[in-house]
Amino acid sequence: MKKLFATLLAVCSVIAVCAFAGCKDGNENVKRTQIDDQTSVIFTASNDVLTLDENTTVKDYLDALKAKGELSFEGSDSDYGFFLTSFDGKENQVISTSPYEGYSWMIYIDFTTLDGTIYATDYSVCEYEGKTLYSASYGVSGIPCVEGHTYAFVYEYYKY
């Protein structure tokens, strides 16, 4: 599991540019968007869902949304933090381990650095409602959740 998690983190930095299209109506805190027939989960952090402070992580926010019944997800804790394995029943899928190939939930955020820490790179980006979202370098338990920032979970194909 540790090797798979490390592999998937590495994939985040090599995924090509993606594009969002065809918004569907969602509830007020989470928007789901179709991307090449795959599902994405997108939210803008708000104190209306959870009181945010300097210690709140994206994982904390996801837990609050899950408790409200606004989304479902599964995952597991590892030495690298919390690893997402599914959203709304759509699970990560490994097709091959040589080469590494499959589908996984990738995290995009609308900032690259915060308080001097690099949380994302501009190597792989998505556009959403006029915002550029960057491929995250950390998992959900390692990324701060900040009021007004946008977070996208994109189910993407990877191969390397």
Could you tell me the mean pLDDT?
80
Sequence stretches where pLDDT stays below 50 over 5 or more residues: 1-26
Number of helices: 2
Q: What characterizes the major β-sheet? A: 8 strands, mixed
Order of helices and strands: HEEEHEEEEEEEEEE
Head-to-tail CA distance between termini: 18 Å
The whole-angstrom Rg is 15 Å
Structural class: mainly beta
Structure summary, number of beta strands: 13
What share of the residues lie within helices? Answer: 10-25%
Principal-axes geometry comes out as globular
Question: How much beta, percentage-wise?
Answer: over 45%
Q: Oligomeric form of this entry? A: single chain
Number of domains: 1
Description:
13% of the residues lie in helices and 46% in strands. Strand 11 and strand 12 form a beta hairpin. The two termini are 18 Å apart. The strands form 3 sheets. Strands 1, 2, 3, 7, 8, 11, 12 and 13 form an 8-stranded mixed sheet that branches. A 3-stranded antiparallel sheet has the order 4-5-6, covered by helices on one side. Strands 9-10 form a two-stranded antiparallel sheet. The chain is globular, with a radius of gyration of 15 Å. It has 160 residues and is mostly beta strands. The protein has one domain. The chain has 2 helices and 13 strands, in the order H-E-E-E-H-E-E-E-E-E-E-E-E-E-E.
